[in-house]
């Protein structure tokens, strides 16, 4: 929202009026012709009423620029996934192995997760691997495993569509279609997924700006997706003490400024199992709609990403620590 | 801690034994002569007993490399600042204006802060400003203002020593000497501050690695400082949606892996007043020992950093939201 | 290459011997059992003869780890594109508009480029755009335009395959298939392109490490590509003074350490037409095999990326300045 | 420079007029009241004449905003250091060891450098080291060594003032006072150095923006420095294949847009001796006024930064390769 001042207006007084309403004034610009222009971004839309602001003494006009991503701006913070609402006060958990490794593993996992109140089972049938020689996932058959296991346990399925050729199969088996970080700007894939009309979990690219992320969501919604849940999983940083850099500010920004649902993946975010609990708590405190947590019956034998997976037998204790006041010091 | 295997040992089994104890195995390296070498970093020292690990079948030896920062490694998570312990279960708040602007402002601020249970008043007498033409702080006289105001209100003082020439004055008036981000590797300043033997609040440099930050703390402790509290205030990112990038993973890493006290500055971290509450809550959830929050009686007239300061009259409500379950959605 | 020392060897003397041969000793590691291990990376393979190094006094063994990307490591610095060798002493230029806008535009451009000695005409039939509402390219028909124009002018065609569905058409019309930055880790696309057996121009991802880039090349070669030319076009930085951050060190590293051909795109690299000449000269000086330069008959009317395009009428002068000693000061 | 349009002007035509003059139009903004505002940044001041631009049809006014760093903007591309002009067509070389290790070493080095036509001997008497336990330099006595050696060889001295306490000694012995990367925003040090009125070599901070770097120069000039030479030495990146990320775009930007002298340090920039030649050539091609190159009589015994130093005996050959056409492929 842009608040333009009249010539000769008392700019400091207008600023006081705006900040006095709890509004965040991000930039003050002066046009070439000398009129001061204040840009205001409202943290909560109900706080900023353009008509009311226009009545402040010294204000010439209040305009609301058309957003670059109108469908994303209009979506709102709650997305319905097969009847389950993601983005309410009750956090949603999405757990499971990095890769779907066998039908037995998937059933065992689903059974434990269901008993812990986890809503979604996650796991990759197709895996994006940096090396062409690494394990690439079991493919279509793994989609059948996870669907059957989820149905038996009364859970929902979230899994990644890695390429355009997998979209229809993933859409047929999954409740929520995942777009991986490396594909956040694979526009052909976004269009193909949009056409399935399924809700989507959109992971942020390794060095994507917030605006690029929102525009990737706009690709999905403008091609048919019924809802987009954003997923922060850590961006590229300069320090290898942790695998990635979890951008907790982006979580708060999407939730409280853009009013969108964000799920956080603290497993990939740090790449360290021992910090999943404090970072998961931090994510929920910053406004996350839920958490995606890697778990594996036996991480030491995992075909991919073992070091960051939580042993399935310890997941219940972890979920408990996520909602407790804080880690024992 | 490094766990070296015997020739021919069952490496997968040793890994299972280690992860089964809750240990995080960060890297597996193979030496030139063919012996597998596992590096283990223990999340909590009590979990990793070298003698017990050495008894695992297949383990040849367990060695603990000498840390590059022995004094920092030995300090522990609690630092005493004039009788107040920072780093316990009770979070500590450090609040005040960016710059100390007048004696009246400082007294008014201290009086309000004290009534809200805030332990430290903060504020700069000397300000590091990107431009030589920006306001540089009121200097020595402001140190007297803040000391008198804090004494009257029963509070402690934290303020920055910007240059070597200010160290003795700051040490005389402050309870906790602050090192700013731009000076994290100003080694002459670190040595001078160390010699005063005061406890120090060490802000992280804009692009400092964790290891560089810890070594800056080692400079302080090895030259006499009685304790170092680390302060995460956001690092340089690639997206200007937020002023900086708050590294919440670094907070958890320092608290739970290195066992050190970390205070978080969500005001500088994002540069947005409207996100101070969710990010402050996230910081505490990730293990922060406390928060540093900029506040000003009237942010619209602040001499520096107004847009990110919380109005003094709203601080009580903000502190309440920090300890409540979560933001209203 | 790893040079391991005998117990009790004079490590400083071995180091002198290695550096005396012009070798770059990147890391010195000490194994858990106390034997020093030196890692050596040879700048030019002919300088480092494992058998000769093994005869240095104090050396126990010299091992050459299997590279993670064997086909990329074996490719070499020259790639043949339809009879034209890219990577020789003679730099290759790839010029043209961002988007292929009309048949007339393409023919006019090809005619001028050919007269200037430019080998490749570039231009997008399919454009990756951050917003779904931006111009997405003219599609298949533009491939026909550019092929006919190139054939008439005796040039080669390089153009991007944006999605899996475009691969066969692009492979049918182009001499060199381009993979864009956003698709560097679109592994489904890499596999599909590999199967066409065409040579590929692989742009580096916005925040891709060197190793990730080389492994993306390995995907292409292991699925059939007849050669991979790498293209540095600027990575994500923290300063918006320039659109991207041109990583000139990566160019030298790929050329002189990994011995691979690299083309540099100074138009995208900085996003500023006025710096194309000095950066193009710098790229060639650092070992680039050629340059990709955006040009347009009338940049002010370009459908995309106008601000960085060089007017077609000024290209001849620019190419002249690229090979002259240096910019007039 | 800001070009504002009249209401109803043909914006596309004005843009064509501007780009037709070789001007780079960086941004087009639309004010709240609907008038288009074009921002123009001129690559060379002689190209953009405000009065002439104001006569373009449709232009309402042309304004030149006051720069944030007026003294830096006015300095120009040549700085005089004791009679030697830095920034002319003839590149200047600054060579020497990382640390000044002994009087004999310094004299031997100066004698060789002088015979090779190198203008400045460099080397640290005070060393900024990440660890407090690393060698910190020989201090004041080393300043005497390097001064005597330079005088004997007819060279100039550039050396770093690490702390405020060293400024007067360094200013007494050096011709050019160096500010290190970690101190780029140590404003107390900048003020103290400014007061000595000596010319300064200002290294860029690890993650400093161009604007922050220029403003640090403004601190120096506004406090008395007789000239500032900027030094690009690599910024913090995300890939540890190279020690730092050499920002060649910043070199061109400072030289051709801001018209300032820039010296490049390819030794620190990459941390690899084997790439000093191609990167040095690239820096000169991008407009660098000179190069700073670490050299050591015997790098394997250097007290600091040995791996990146060029052996003194090979420096002549290296300097020859810097001015030759290009590296043998």
From TrEMBL, chains A, B, C, D:
Its EC number is 2.5.1.54. It comes from the Bacteria. SUPFAM superfamilies: Aldolase. Residues 83-318 form the DAHP synthetase I/KDSA domain. One of its GO terms (molecular function) is 3-deoxy-7-phosphoheptulonate synthase activity. It holds the Pfam family DAHP_synth_1. InterPro entries: Aldolase_TIM, Class-I_DAHP_synthase, DAHP1/KDSA, DAHP_syn_2. Keywords: Transferase. PANTHER family: PHOSPHO-2-DEHYDRO-3-DEOXYHEPTONATE ALDOLASE (PTHR43018), PROTEIN AROA(G) (PTHR43018:SF1). This is 3-deoxy-7-phosphoheptulonate synthase. It comes from Polyangium mundeleinium. The gene is aroF.
């Amino acid at each position: 929202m842009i608040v333009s001042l009249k010539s000769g207006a008392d700019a400091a007084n207008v600023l006081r009026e705006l900040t006095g309403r709890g509004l965040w004034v991000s930039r003050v610009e002066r046009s070439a012709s000398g009129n001061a222009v204040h840009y205001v971004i409202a943290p909560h839309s109900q706080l900023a009423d353009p008509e009311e602001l226009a009545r402040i003494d010294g204000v010439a006009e209040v305009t609301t620029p058309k957003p670059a991503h109108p469908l994303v701006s209009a979506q709102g913070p709650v997305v319905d996934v097969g009847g389950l609402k993601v983005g309410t006060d009750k956090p949603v958990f999405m757990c499971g192995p990095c890769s779907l490794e066998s039908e037995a593993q998937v059933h065992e996992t689903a059974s434990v997760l269901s008993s812990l109140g986890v809503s979604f089972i996650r796991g990759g049938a197709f895996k994006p691997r940096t090396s062409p020689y690494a394990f690439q996932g079991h493919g279509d058959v793994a989609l059948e495993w996870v669907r059957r296991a989820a149905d038996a346990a009364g859970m929902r399925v979230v899994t990644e569509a890695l390429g355009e050729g997998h979209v229809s199969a993933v859409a047929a088996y999954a409740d929520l279609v995942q777009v991986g970080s490396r594909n956040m700007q694979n526009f052909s894939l976004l269009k193909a997924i949009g056409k399935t009309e399924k809700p989507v979990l959109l992971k942020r690219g390794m060095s994507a700006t917030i605006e690029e992320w929102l525009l990737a969501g706009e690709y999905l919604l403008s091609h048919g997706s019924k809802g987009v849940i954003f997923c922060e999983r850590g961006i590229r940083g300069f320090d290898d003490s942790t695998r990635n850099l979890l951008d907790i500010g982006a979580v708060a920004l999407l939730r409280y400024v853009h009013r969108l649902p964000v799920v956080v993946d603290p497993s990939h975010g740090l790449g360290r199992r021992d910090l999943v609990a404090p970072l998961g708590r931090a994510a929920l405190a910053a406004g996350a709609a839920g958490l995606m947590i890697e778990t594996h019956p036996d991480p030491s034998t995992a075909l991919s990403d073992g070091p960051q997976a939580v042993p399935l037998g310890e997941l219940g204790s972890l979920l408990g620590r996520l909602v407790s006041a804080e880690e024992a010091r």
